[in-house]
Amino acid sequence: MSRNKLGQFEPGTCGNSRGRPRKIPRKIRTEQIRKEFLEVAGTPVPIIENGRRKLIPIRVAIGMQLAKKAASGDLRAILAWTDMDRKHTTEYVKEQLEYHRQIMKSEEIVRKHPEDVTDEYMAMIRNLRATMDPDYLP
């Protein structure tokens, strides 16, 4: 870096040739966001239902408001409600299919190797069926 007699940089040269260092963005962790969201969603808020004060989680209150808006004909609320319904229904169906696969696999093991099946294993299959179908009676 060349300077003149007064100590100034000569024209066309820069005193900070490397430039200002870039600001490093703060990393956003999805686990932290999810944790904070679930904490806030579980916070109880007061509502009045049938003339009585009641505390319910924020997520339930928002769902109730969304359902009321959707029922009144608000198009955005209807679309949001439909998306939520589709998401939750899809998750439920996937969960039920996984339970069904586990039951089928377990029953196949019982058929192939009945001598190796323990009472605990049979109890686990019964519990899995009861989880999938609350009306299931062994």
Characterization of the model:
It is built from 4 helices and 2 strands. With 138 residues, it is mainly alpha-helical. The protein has a two-stranded antiparallel sheet. A hairpin with a 2-residue loop joins strand 1 (44-49) and strand 2. The chain has helices spanning 30-41, 58-72, 75-112, 119-132; strands spanning 44-49, 52-57. The termini are far apart. The protein folds into 2 domains: 29-81, no CATH class; 91-138.
Note the main sheet.
2 strands, antiparallel
SSE string, helices as H and strands as E: HEEHHH
Kindly estimate the percentage of residues that lie in beta strands according to DSSP.
5-15%
The share of residues in helices is 55-70%
Segments where pLDDT lies below 50 for 5+ residues? Answer: none
- Overall tally of structural domains: 2
Describe the strand arrangement of the main beta sheet, using strand numbers. 1-2
Q: In short, what is this structure?
A:
This protein has 138 residues and is mostly helical. Helix content is 57%, strand content 9%.
Strand and helix layout:
Blueprint: H1 30-41, E1 44-49, E2 52-57, H2 58-72, H3 75-112, H4 119-132
Antiparallel strand pairs: 1-2
Helix pairs in contact: 2-3, 3-4
What brief labels describe this structure?
2 domains, elongated, 138 residues, 4 helices, 57% helix, two-stranded antiparallel sheet, mainly alpha, 9% strand
